[in-house]
Amino acid sequence: MNYIGSKHRLRAFLKHEIKKVVGDDLSQKVFCDLFAGSGAVGKSFKNEVKQLISNDIEHYSYILNKNYIGNTKAIKNQTKLIEELNSLTLKDDGFIYRHYCKGSGSQRLYFSDYNGKKIDTIRTQLNLWRKTSFIDENTYYFLLASLIENADSVANTASIYSAFLKTLKKTAQKKLILTPAKFELSPNTHIVYNQNSDTLIKQIQGDILYLDPPYNQRQYGSNYHILNTISIYDEFIPYGITGVRPTYTRSLYAQKRHTNQAFNNLIKNANFNYIFLSYNNEGLMSKEFIKNTMQKYGDYHLVKKEYKKFHTTKSTNQNQKADRTYEYLHVLVKRYSYLNPTKQNTINSI
């Protein structure tokens, strides 16, 4: 998926720097990806750690990571199930078609009429299969994550859902064919949450905490609202030209007046030995503030890497310098006096 802030291209860099601090053998470590997003970082550590804790407040991210991280065993009859979903007769009265396809009269062009109807058809069938226990929870998350991935691949947007394009682009003209959302098998049990990070951090404990909060004032709840609607699949009245959900979570880390205090509380409450914060040079929090906050709680250092910016559309700008930015990895080894050694370990609390 094209995803704002995705660390897919930075995975090797992150893994190298984390192992430089923690050590190469992570097999007995509990790793938490607190702002999981598309799951790129968590997936890369899934089979290197004893347990992975994945969390994100956005529901579509929760569904994706329930598959990528939470699923550890092979899905039975997955080929047959996907074939059956692909062969269903299309519904013409579903929520996505009615509100996000032009053919319904909605005036919104997020999907072609065919793809909107197919999303509704598959999503409705998944609810029925889950309700009747025809499929188990793991299979449900696998199939729903597959639908979200495939729907995103044919969406008529410039990668985010804050607006739709006026005419169908080439990829949006393709017919949606459900294909499996791949995940790695694992011998260990991993946990996936859909909670506010500031609440969850007080309830969990581990060794490595990886933080990748929003950098700027763009809210993921509005930028990816249709993926949330597909994942939740509830009834509501879409708001405005873009059909955004009437309410959505507004992250404190995307609000300038709140982000500094929220970050300080997060670091203070984190019961993890090693904390790694990914943050770029264009974020709401200054590099100096992050340094001053983190070094209050232990030994701090900073690593920097230049990389190409994420663009929602292909840039015609020929100035290569303007097309690049810096990713900062802020590293904190928390002092023992700021940890709570009496708190029950996350693994033992399952």
Explain what you see.
This protein has 350 residues and is α/β, with parallel strands linked by helices. It has 2 domains: 8-71 and 184-214 and 251-350, 3-Layer(aba) Sandwich (Rossmann fold); 72-182 and 222-247, no CATH class. It contains 13 helices and 7 strands. The protein has helices spanning 11-22, 40-45, 59-70, 78-86, 95-100, 113-131, 137-153, 170-173, 197-200, 220-223, 225-232, 256-269, 287-294; strands spanning 30-33, 51-55, 191-193, 206-211, 272-280, 298-308, 324-334. Helix 2 (40-45) links the parallel strand 1 (30-33) and strand 2 (51-55). Residues 314-322 and 344-350 have low confidence and may be disordered.
The CATH superfamily of the largest domain is known as Vaccinia Virus protein VP39
Radius of gyration: 21 Å
Say how many strands there are: 7
State mean pLDDT (0 to 100 scale). Answer: 91
Supply the number of structural domains. Answer: 2
* N-to-C SSE string, H for helix and E for strand: HEHEHHHHHHEHEHHHEHEE
Low-confidence stretches: 314-322, 344-350
The level of helicity is 25-40%
Write down the overall geometry. globular
CATH architecture level-2 label of the largest domain: 3-Layer(aba) Sandwich
Strand content: 5-15%
Q: Which structural class fits the helix and strand makeup?
A: alpha/beta
Question: Tally the helices: what do you get?
Answer: 13
The biggest sheet amounts to: 7 strands, mixed
- What is the CATH domain class of the largest domain? Alpha Beta
- The main sheet orders its strands as 3-2-1-4-5-7-6
In whole angstroms, how far apart are the ends? Answer: 31 Å
User: What is the third-level CATH name, the topology of the largest domain?
Assistant: Rossmann fold
